[in-house]
Task: structure prediction
Amino acid sequence: MPYSAPLLDAVAMFERLGIGYALAGGIAAMYYGQARFTEGVEFVTAADRQEVLERNPGVMREFHFDPSCTWKLYHQSGTEVDIWKDEYADEVVGRAPTARMSGREVRIVEAHDLVAMKLRAGRMKDEYDVFEIIRHVHLDEDLIERYVTPEQWATFRRIAERAEKEGK
Result:
């Protein structure tokens, strides 16, 4: 995995500092769905992450991150590690299961939460990810509906219907 060093450094740093986290974004979507190109690494973290990082610049340097920025992480490899900003972040982190990635256990956003996050983001690549997750994971649609707005739910239903038609 081309992003394994920044991913593993972020995980190790979050764990050392006791910051709740879950891998999100394109890498999580590939875990549940279909391989695709992604431009970086993305996490959802507990709400107190920024304050904890600000108090620990030495630990950030130890794990190869620039301590001058705590709202986004800049790894010495040149890879940017984005942090998902969402009012459900603490809940998402709390539900995150672990998965084996790059030789270690990593907390990853649960599939239902990832679909809801992707629907809230509403970009074309997010719709592709939702489509692929639907094709590969059995989802409880009632859970998805609880986590999104009526408009986002309508988008989910449209994508799910297309996935069902193409699956036949």
Notes: The domain at 4-167 is CATH 3.30.460 (Beta Polymerase; domain 2).
